[in-house]
UniProtKB/TrEMBL annotation, chains A, B, C, D, E:
Listed GO CC annotations: plasma membrane
Protein localization: Cell membrane
Name the record gives this protein: Bestrophin family ion channel
Main location: membrane
Species this protein is from: Lacinutrix neustonica
Entry keyword set: Cell membrane, Ion transport, Membrane, Transmembrane, Transmembrane helix, Transport
Length: 338, 338, 338, 338, 338
């Protein structure tokens, strides 16, 4: 998640440089064909291009809107994880009462500590790349490779669960699912010991139900790409527009030059090159903006900062357990919070 | 569900070839009438076409947006099925305690196994074709016929329920509904045996209520076409625009040719043919993109991958029952997950 | 609900014929004034018309989107009725246990049968016409009059409730409300007899609460027109555009004719007539499409098929009661399901 | 709430007359400067006006969409009040059982009657004007002043609560809040008397929680204007467009007149006046349509008909209490239901 | 929150003056280059600018729509806080019954008073500035600095919680979270004393769960900027359009001047300056409108009036406790409610 109001030109160029070169070379070639070879037929009337441009802008608008929704839903789900982590903890802190202060502490700690185990395991599972993952140019990818963590195993639970539980998790297909299962078994065991009544078991099980819903919602977004027919044709249509654009601009600049009087007249159409690059960049950038929030769990520039959220939850929960040596918040790197 | 970022040109052509031929032949005929027969009146001013084009682009935008919502709602419902399948299982695993480990296992297995029976029965019921089903050209249909499964009976429950239950289901109008009913009867029977208390029966019945909601939501989308007046006129308006387009392009290219000086002038309007084909393809494709997510349970290129999800749930549930020989995940065919 | 993918031209013409005649006559008169009387000033520049056309297309887009939401909300509510009808039934089937099989049957049947009474009474209440109901031309209205049922009384409950209950319902302002009230009284009576415990009463009362929510949501849509300032001005603006259109098209065709060389030049503007009819039809149709889903409970071409849904629920419920002679599904008439 | 499909021209003119005069005078002045003083430079090219027009149409579309949502949310909330009023009543009717029929009646009546007291108090609180209230011209305001009721006190509760309770309410800041508080105190008192068990108290308290949610949602809409930066600039931009319009139309009509041949040529630009008035009216009306649903509780032409809904609820509840002399429904005045 | 219907020109200028000067100077320079230096090539055809303008207007529309949603969600959350504050209070008032009136009062007061402590602590936590906070020009910032409060500590809880509780809160990372935790501990303690039964504890804990949800939803909006790629490029594209605009307008005014006859012809293009300033202001204002509701908790002109809401809740709750000396409502300053 980028945390500054304005995006520096350095970062923008890191994304755009390749396209800017392509647009410039392409428009220059067309200008040369027109100007040096005298191919004055190499233009296209602009009117139909206007219609394509507006239709493409609509289409991109639709895509951006849905991509934003995917990001925002992802962020909402993690907000829900924050909220129910706190509810889970206060319910354990208030419900469990063995009469023995240190035994209370022990039970509460076991159940509260397993929770950051779950969120961290979930985080790592969501960070694994998918076959439809976005690939940017080399300059951008190195930026993320430098910062980003993509652990493979469920090692994230170490320190939060017992060794035997860890060994069991290692054999499971989806460790996060089994962490919640273990919470459920623990809760019912406490009830059988008489430490929880029916109402309290009911409330805690409801929170676990909520955790499964939140986990499943993350997995839904992660495992379902933004439907590729919507996403890919957005790119195709944008590039068709962008590739036709210099021909159309040549036409309008050419016509406009008819009114000019001085000797620059012949060179006037040359202005078409920077103008073409600019409009192309606007359209391609609009299109790419959506791409960057389609998949919100990848650890890229505008994704849900799951690592930071996991740490915040851990701090909150340990503060509630009245621990003293709380870990530090995750700090942004190059203005990006991961 | 298509699982690659980019859609190959082979696949695009498989969908588009027929239309591309139609557009080319149609535009060529109009060009010939104009050029060889000299019918220079066979054109239409482009300004009103711009207005139609923009209005049609809006209309398509609306349709795509609603179609996408239908797909995404379908996917959310199946996400909900995943989540509550897990909740159902952990509740059974933690609540049921006869004191006898193997008897627990037996009861838990009966109730957990009936669940994949339900999701698979539901899946097959949703895959049956409807009178408003989309039909593509032959090349596309063969692709899906090769991969897709459209079982007729509720045979999917074999192995998940007892033989007597299976025989009862065979006689029912809607087998999925009765599978949940059987779960409910089982749960209350367990309560009468004293294996569940009131709170636990309440929670399990709430999960069953949720299953009926999820099933009914699937059936709502399946049994209600995207209102045909919205969907069909989108196609009609697009084709009207596309059929008028070559006349309008002839007009703008003709006018543009007036400025040309060399001998190609007469042939300049010829450029209208590829340009016309291109714009036509863009508009028709935009329109068709929506069609492909209107009905999300058909087992087509971008539909909800129910077969894969059913398998995932089955694996999850059997892993929770600590089974060893878990089935494999469903693999995509030609980059499509069914 | 129209159940075919494509809408036949016969049906389209049934809706459109009157407007098509109006548009043709209107454009012809304007053409004659121009051509025969030589009123060459009777035209309007097209540029401002473009702006109106685009603004109107937006406005219609907004209206269609909201109208669609009203339909889809109506359909979702009835989907909810389907879901909770099943939940209601399985809860009764599993909870009620007098020890006497035939007494169980009797109680379950009374409470389950009253339910189709409620949905049918609700259906008929929703089908009564309102002061803002849509009126189409004669050809369309006869189609619906032929098929549609608009019973006046709560006779729909006959066969589902006892005679004395029926007589009580006859005197009530809103019979559907009282059917749910009777369910509630029955449930609490069963609890007092000890046939239901507190948890079970709680669950059944929650389902009744849900039924009141669903009924009230239907009544909200039924009793609140799509705000008429939004709906009516959409029509006004569309017709203003459509009435100005021939004047604007005359202008563009006239200008375009200046380039023509042959003797058809003078007649070229004649093309404005079919073109004007076509664009007018597109805009008016776009506008009318929304009208047809504004009020989703009227029993018109694209309304919620409540009659069919009521029958489906009845079949489902009676199948759960293990009845043998299940009624048949409602069949579509002229491809329309009511 | 306006209850006819079409809005009469009388009503439209009542809203529009002042603007129509302004537009006509303004366009005429510009025409006179052009025609009589020969200021042929007093025009503006239309192309940039097209862009402003389309941008403004978008902006208005956004505003209308959000305003509609505010109205529809308001209507949904009152729908919720209807639904839970019924649920409240059937729960009281079925739960309360003292063994003594007339004592039951008395308790039920006290709790059911306090409810219309609450909805009517809430209605009056919502009808009080705010500092950002819409003001129309004199002709429109007199229409509403004639019909509308804006009581000041909580006198609406007279007849629904006891005299002592009424006197207590008079001293409160927000009487509606205290009516629900009194219901809660009554419910818990009944439980202490043993007339309700824990489940039943729980359900009734949940309904009261729902009432507070519904009341608070009304107050949120009432106390928060549609953000004025969105609402006010919509008006500013529309009027800027409308004021520039005649200059732009002068330009296009002037250019169009160049092709005319007869003596009317000079007067052709005169057509700009009615055309300008028409487009101005369309844009200003589009903008005003949104204004009229921004604040849905004011008792204006398209607001939530709270008076009628309160009466409907009262009738429903008293019918459930088996009362005989039910009050009449509220009738619309001049086709407007308040 | 601005509370008048119309925004005064003084306030608008306070925001706009700097941009207006920039636009005027910029357009004047371009005009001078054209007019005095005779650079008649320094123009750009307007057609492609139209397409950019429309595309940018879409994009801004999307941004405004999402920004509005962020504001409205923020307002809804605080509406939820109002509602559940009341529910919390009536549950405590009706449930707690020690038999001793003054002991009841004491317990109720402790639990009800801690609640305004929580909302005020939450308010102050939400008012702390973030690294992506909006910065306006000096004239605007002084306005907010004059009125706005940005306390640093959790001093807001003084008077609402005991001294020892306050001292504990001072050491916490997130004091609001711990206030709810303390409520939970208190509730369970009351249950252990037998003052609450299981149902009542369940209900009160559910309200606390709701409070955590509401707090977490506020923190989600506060801690997640509107994705900067969407927000920042909106500004970039708008300014690109605005900077190209004078060149394009020069072109259209220049062409339009060809028809003029009198001596003003040469100066006609001068009109481009005010026109350019006007359109630039419209686009930049549209863009800035969204900026102002992106972050709804900052205490700026259109943010959620949390200070006023906190006071309203405090008054409501103390009125329910039958206190006499209720504090006054917060009054708006310069028509802005904070």
């Amino acid at each position: 998640m980028y945390i500054k109001r304005n995006i520096g030109w350095g970062l923008i160029l890191r994304y755009a440089w390749k396209n800017l070169i392509i647009f410039t070379v392409y428009a220059s070639i067309i200008f040369c064909l027109y100007y040096y070879l005298g191919w004055d037929f190499i233009d296209i009337p602009f009117q139909p291009l206007s219609v394509i441009g507006i239709a493409v802008a609509f289409y991109i608008g639709f895509k951006n809107s849905q991509s934003y929704d995917r990001f925002w839903e992802g962020r909402k789900i993690w907000g829900g994880i924050v909220n129910y982590s706190r509810t889970w903890t206060i319910q354990l802190l208030s419900f469990i009462d063995t009469g023995d202060q240190s035994k209370n502490k022990e039970i509460q700690q076991r159940l509260v500590y397993r929770h950051p185990g779950w969120i961290n395991a979930l985080r790592v599972q969501l960070r694994q790349p998918k076959s439809w993952a976005l690939k940017e140019n080399y300059a951008v990818e190195t930026l993320f490779n430098k910062h980003n963590e993509r652990n493979i195993s469920c090692n994230e639970t170490v320190g939060f669960v017992s060794v035997s539980e860890y060994e069991d998790l290692e054999k499971r297909v989806n460790p996060a699912t089994h962490l919640i299962k273990n919470q459920a078994l623990d809760i019912t065991a406490l009830k059988k010991e008489g430490l929880l009544d029916g109402f309290q078991e009911d409330q805690l099980q409801s929170v676990l139900e909520e955790f499964y819903n939140l986990q499943g919602m993350c997995e839904r977004i992660k495992n379902t790409p933004f439907p590729r027919q919507y996403g890919y044709f957005s790119k195709v249509f944008t590039w068709i527009f962008v590739l036709l654009l210099p021909f159309g601009l040549l036409d309008v600049f050419e016509n406009d030059a008819l009114n000019l009087t001085n000797e620059l007249k012949e060179w006037y159409a040359f202005l078409m090159i920077p103008f073409s690059v600019l409009i192309s960049w606007i359209f391609v950038t609009m299109e790419v903006i959506g791409d960057n929030s389609e998949d919100p769990f990848e650890g890229r520039i505008n994704d849900v900062p799951m690592t930071a959220l996991c740490r915040t939850i851990e701090i909150d929960l340990r503060d509630m357990l009245d621990e003293k040596d709380l870990p530090k918040n995750i700090q942004p790197k190059n203005n990006i919070l991961y």
